[in-house]
What we know:
The chain has 132 residues and is mainly alpha-helical. It has helices at 6-17, 25-32, 44-58, 65-79, 96-106, 118-131, and strands at residues 82-84, 107-109.
Amino acid sequence: MRYLTVQDILWIHLQLGGxxxxxxxxxxxxxxxxxxxxxxxxxxxxxxARLLWGFTKKAPxxxxxAEVALxxxxxxxxxxxxxxxxxxxASAPDSLAAAKEAIHAASEPDPHAHTAExxxxxxxxxxxxxxx
Length: 132
């Protein structure tokens, strides 16, 4: 399993906003750690859903929380062998169950799994988003 670090999250925020506005470090750390699961942690999609839901709920950044959460979630999925098959919203899911439903509906295992470094995956996602 490959995870994003707090530094990866701050880098995403910097790329999106051009600056790292104020943030609450303890909340940022907690929001980033939502990608980990207690007990059985073999469901990449469920852990991605936890990251999306938890990060948007915690909102540790002064700006761009939803966008950072969405990009981090996509990066987490790709880094762990999944591909996106549909778009899902950057809006905060109402519940963890809603986040799981959205992630499961929008991703599937990738037979040609990405082996690049996490930061490269995130950079590719940012470049793709900038062109859209």
